[in-house]
Design brief:
Elements (H helix, E strand, L loop, with lengths): L5 E6 L7 H14 L4 E6 L5 H9 L5 E2 L6 H11 L5 E5 L15 H8 L3 E6 L6 H11 L6 E9 L2 H11 L6 E6 L8 E2 L2 E2 L8 H15 L2 H7 L1 E2 L22 E5 L9 H9 L3 E5 L13 E4 L8 H5 L2 H12 L3 E5 L1 H6 L2 E3 L5 E3 L7 E3 L6 E9 L11 E8 L2 E4 L7 E4 L5 E5 L1 E3 L2 E4 L2 E5 L10
Helix pairs in contact: 1-2, 1-7
Length: 451
């Protein structure tokens, strides 16, 4: 057993309980108090980490025990704790929710690290019944310890008194009773929260949230609940073994603006650590990838919200086509994949011509949710690896595929249960893409390990 920075995981019985607002408020309040608080987000999420970083002033990685190799998690945790006095992790969905079989849950990360859980319970419409809920969560898994509870959206002092009395026999400390405050709601859109970069009032919002938490939570008591991390990787190495996704080239141009924002910061750092040179460009500003780039990466995002503008940005589109002509690798994920396609139909039914480098027609006129973990295996050789190289990732979009043309498939995919989903994405020369957001490659597991 090895001791590391004290940490605490913020979890909830269900989505919508307020754990994101609580986490942001705590990070901001700790930062203002001079505590170097690092943070991470559990599960595949591009939006919450940017809010974390704004609140704490420190980069926020994602940890995903379903999609990531143990050595990847160990590497991210090691970097996260450098210079941190305390680490806060924000859970995903409910404490025990993950893939179909429950793996990849917040509880799994709590068990892996040994960090205790602070449970945030939304008590609208209940009072003493919250004690039964807390009792059930506290006893559900022996390897997960709930060290404290925060009651959120409390109606008033009388409501708070009933809650405290009801849970007192459980011996689980109540860290606070947070009143309902309408102006701390975080705006959402179809793929989650409105992005941090789009909120002009972000600093003021974070300070209001910190003021709210300080009035109702003893930060010293919260810090006392944190415990040192314990790593348990079943005997596997705790050192990194290469980038989660291989660098696409030596000089990689990365699209980076409000339309292409879904790139994991840890992935880009992996590429830099491997010696790749990254240059950022903005398609929305009609910037082209640098002419000397031997690879172009278009991450996911919201191109459907800016489709008309992108379609009219001739320098950007010409730059993509020129990169393909000179043999550069051009890779698009989800929104990036749609941009590499022939056309994109927006929610109003208007078609916008895209780069035309892949035979994809996508539409938001008939929205259909595609959501879940993916096991993806390369169908042919490309910059990501040889045929058969496997990855784990995530798919989350509302686009319908009108036509994917006759190009070669990029991946053969399965869901988290192993059910075959068929081919995904397209590959034409050095240009390729799919709707899957890659999280980590899969090592060839020894016989009997199934990873």
């Amino acid at each position: 057993m090895t001791a590391f920075t004290p940490g605490l995981i913020i979890a909830a019985p269900a989505s919508g309980s307020g754990k994101t607002t609580v986490t942001l408020a705590l990070l901001r309040a700790l930062c203002r108090a001079g505590v170097a608080a690092g943070s991470f987000k559990i599960g595949p999420d591009y939006i919450d980490p940017a809010f974390h970083a704004a609140a704490s002033g420190r980069a926020c990685p994602n940890l995903d025990s379903w999609a990531m190799r143990p050595e990847t998690i160990a590497r991210l945790l090691g970097a996260l704790q450098q210079g941190a006095d305390l680490v806060l992790g924000e859970g995903v969905m409910g404490l025990f929710d993950g893939a179909v079989d429950g793996t990849g849950s917040t509880a799994d990360v709590a068990a892996l690290t040994g960090w205790p859980v602070l449970l945030v319970i939304d008590v609208r419409g209940q009072a003493a019944s919250a004690a039964a809920l807390l009792r059930g969560f506290a006893g559900h898994r022996a390897d997960v310890r709930i060290a404290g509870v925060l009651f959120n959206r409390v109606g008033g002092p009388a409501h708070a008194d009933i809650l405290r009395r009801a849970v007192a026999p459980l011996g689980i400390p109540v860290l606070g009773c947070l009143p309902r405050i309408a102006d701390l709601a975080v705006p959402e859109r179809h793929l989650g929260l409105v992005q941090a970069s789009e909120r002009a009032d972000l600093a003021a919002f974070l300070d209001r949230a910190a003021d709210w938490i300080v009035r109702h939570v003893d930060l010293g008591a919260l810090q006392a609940l944190a415990a040192p991390m314990r790593l348990s990787f079943n005997g596997r190495t705790q050192t990194g073994e290469g980038a989660a996704v291989p660098p696409l080239g030596q000089r990689i141009a990365v699209a980076d603006d409000a339309a292409f924002t879904f790139a994991y910061a840890a992935l880009l750092e992996d590429w830099r650590a491997a010696g790749a040179e990254l240059s950022l460009f903005s398609p929305l500003a009609d910037e082209a990838p640098t002419a000397d780039a031997d690879a172009v990466y278009l991450p996911g995002g919201y191109p459907e919200l800016h489709a008309g503008r992108l379609a009219g940005n001739d320098a950007f589109l010409a730059g993509l086509r020129q990169a393909a002509v000179r043999g550069a690798t051009v890779f698009g994920e989800c929104g990036g994949y749609m941009t590499l396609g022939a056309g994109l139909v927006d929610a109003e039914g208007r078609r916008h011509a895209m780069a035309g480098l892949l035979p994809l027609e996508a539409s938001f006129a008939d929205r259909r949710l595609h959501l879940g973990y993916r096991q993806a295996r390369l169908a042919g050789a490309c910059a990501l690896g040889d045929p058969g190289q496997a990855f784990r990732g995530h798919e989350f979009h509302y686009a319908s595929i009108v036509d994917e043309g006759d190009g070669k498939p990029l991946f053969e995919c399965r869901d988290a249960t192993g059910r075959a989903l068929g081919s995904s994405g397209r590959r034409c020369g050095t240009v390729f893409g799919s709707f899957v957001h890659l999280i980590d490659r899969v090592s060839e597991a020894p016989a009997g390990e199934g990873r």
